[in-house]
Amino acid sequence: MSLASPSSDRMPASPPGVPPAPESPRVALLGNPNTGKTTLFNRLCGVMSKTANFPGTTTRSRIGRCVAGERTLEVVDLPGAYRLSLGLPESKVCRAALLGEAGRRPDLAVVVLDATNLARNLILLAELAELGVPAIAALNMVDLAQQRGLTFDRARLSELLGCPVVPVVARRGDGVPELREAILEMLDRGSAPAPDQGRLDPQSFPSLEDWTEHVVAQGVGGRRAVGAALDTVTERLDQAFTHPLLGTLVFLGVMAGLFWTLFVLASVPMDLIEATFRHLGDWTAARIPPGAVRDLLVQGVIGGIAGSVVFLPQICLLFFLLSLLEDTGYLARAAFVMDRLLCRFGLPGHAFVPLLSSHACAVPGILSTPLIPDRQDRLTTILVAPLMSCSARVPVYVFLTSLLFADSPLLAGLAFSGCYLLGATAALVTAAITRRTILRGPSRPMVLELPSYKAPSLRNALLIAFHQGVSFLRTAGTVIMAICLVMWWLSAYPRTEPPAAAVALQRQAVALEGLGQPERAAELSRQADLLTSRHAQAQSFAGRLGRTIEPVFAPLGYDWQLTVGVLTSFLAREVFVSTMAVLLQAGSDDVESAGVLSRIRTARRDDGRPIFTRATSASLLVFFVLAMQCLSTLVVTRRESGSWRWAALQLGYMTTLAYLLAFATFQGLQKLGIA
Amino acid sequence: MKTVSSPSRPSPGLAPIHLTELTAGVEARLHAVQLGDEDFALLEALGMTRSCRFRVCKAGDPWIVQVRETRIGLADSVARRLLVVPQA
């Protein structure tokens, strides 16, 4: 599923909610990474933007609408690139966009320059001139530069560069109105070339670096005009954050904070969303007569939408926090701390954010993989991220470890921790194997610019979180909902009549009601409903599939009921617990209730043998640690990898790994007599 | 793998050494690079060009060097492949 518009050979279409203006001038935003380009884009366009892939790539861009005077401009935020001539994906995408090879050629480019590091940033401007694209230089972070004692002769710089120079502080919005005016003025000038008297031609210098030195020497003043600047605070922070011991401790603390915040804060809106949709379902059910339409609306549509929307808080919060962290400059240092460990397994240091986030949920974890510059590294991380034990697995872990070690909370706790360790180990080993086979090659050695430390932009972080959430709903959300509808249908159809035993219980309940015994009547009615649900589950397409596939899972110790539970949990892992509660007539899916656990523990197969033996429970636990049982994750894998092939590979290898290890666990424990 | 040498010869008596032999605070010039094309191009784009002068801010994995106003972090595996000439 491409994020691009249907005419995918062109740049994606205008954002929704704004009537397309066919003649809107197109302005490209270009710049080195960490120059504040995205911040400037947010200032120019606000929420009026959308995210899309460049055609044929997984490199993302944002396209927005900027109102300048009486005109509306289309602004394209190109990926950050150090040079257009590099072979890196970002450089190629920028070049293609500027040359009009990926859609309409921009009418002009705004090159965002970091005023604290002007020399290196100017090279992009020189390369842009070679392409013949009119340019404006937005000199960003002038406030930080001025704090360092630098002064800028704007007119002189403009003369030397042959283009307008507009000082801005994108973080505060300073200079942005002036930038809009400069853009309009340049667009009105049309194709008429700007006078270039006084322009320093880069071609007349031995190298671009010499040219930049001359421009800076003539246009920038102050006590640190040319040469390296000493920054004691930065030095000390870098020493601390990249120290083998202290850096690791700081990293663990920051990640623990991020993880805790994600887990705890996101759970509040997530619970609210679940409750809201539950009430919505109940409200709808109360107003529509029982039947197929009601079931479709309540269980299919509302349940399906809830299944997508429930991810939003975690996704938005994760990107909000990551944006803040990245803005501070810390993430680049943290990447080096993790690189020491991860590179042994063929993963880059950047992979720590997606892998750690996947402990909350693999969906936002995989969505954050664009942080990783190298494609092979990124694909490897995407493939192994779901092996990290996510929060959806927690109810299953609690359930199964309680069954395994009913009399020993300590052993149950150790088993619970062991699940996390197994998942993480499997992820690292799989990554190492992947880099030696299908994605052969070592992880790219880390070479990374360390940006200046600065206060993060709350506004930026909120906008990024908003856009990531909208983007998720628009793409993955629709597919997730469609899959939920299909899975619901498989579990709900064909319709069957209630079994005779349930009908008898309902009659008894009615009779008891008439005799003034409402509590007993309610209990019998509840039992009748459970029997009906179990019968419906067993007779549904999913249930019949369970019976058909049972021989495949028999070697793992599962009967048809466990097979149905495993199959339905491919929609969402946490469904397993409620499915088992229904199938085993436990009365409730509150597995912390002693009564419920007791009923489940003593549940029997059709042949009378217990369902949950030690070996079976252990086998199930291993299966759930390793299996790919999240269709939402597959959808975002497809989105981030650019192909269903990688999603299919992910499903295939994880299912195979889970099956083989669960088989080994069950058979091994049986042979040891631990059944 | 590409080896790129600086067009200028090292100062007499100052033979090129690996970056990993420097200590924090030392300034040096880049003499040769033994890296793949893409890694070398990225270093250049960050400012570590032939004969550029830089300062070692932090020694040890990761190495942190400063070229003009750019601070660059280098994994040990990269730093070992950079030949430099210390400057007085």
Q: What profile does the largest beta sheet of chain B have?
A: 7 strands, antiparallel
CATH topology of the domain at 26-227 in chain A: Rossmann fold
What is the name of the CATH architecture of chain B?
Answer: Roll
CATH homologous superfamily designation of the domain at 26-227 in chain A:
P-loop containing nucleotide triphosphate hydrolases
> Which series of helices and strands of chain B comes N to C?
EEEHEEEHE
* Model regions low in confidence, pLDDT < 50 over at least 5 residues of chain A: 1-14, 225-229
Instruction: Give the number of helices of chain A.
Output: 27
Give the termini separation of chain B: 31 Å
Structural class of chain A: alpha/beta
**Count of spatially separate domains of chain B:** 1
Oligomeric state of shown chains:
heterodimer
Determine the strand fraction of chain B and express it as a percent band. Answer: 35-45%
Largest interface: A-B, 37 and 31 residues
Order of the strands making up the biggest sheet of chain A:
2-3-4-1-5-6-8
What shape does the CA trace of chain A take?
elongated
Task: Describe the protein.
The complex is a heterodimer of chains A (675) and B (88). Chain A has 675 residues and is of the alpha/beta class. Among the domains of chain A are: 26-227, P-loop containing nucleotide triphosphate hydrolases (Rossmann fold), CATH 3.40.50.300; 478-671, no CATH class. In chain A, 59% of the residues lie in helices and 8% in strands. A seven-stranded mixed sheet of chain A has the order 2-3-4-1-5-6-8, with helices on both faces. In chain A, helix 26 (631-641) packs across helix 27 (644-671). Chain A starts with 25 loop residues before the first strand and ends with a helix. The relative contact order of chain A is 0.07. Chain B has one domain (2-6, 17-86): Ferrous iron transport protein A (FeoA) (SH3 type barrels, Roll), CATH 2.30.30.90. Chain B is built from two helices and seven strands, in the order E-E-E-H-E-E-E-H-E. In chain B, strands 1, 2, 3, 4, 5, 6 and 7 form a seven-stranded antiparallel sheet that branches. Chain B is globular. Classes of the chains: A alpha/beta (675), B alpha+beta (88). Chains A and B meet through helix 3, helix 8, helix 12 and strand 10 of A and helix 1, strand 4, strand 5 and strand 6 of B.
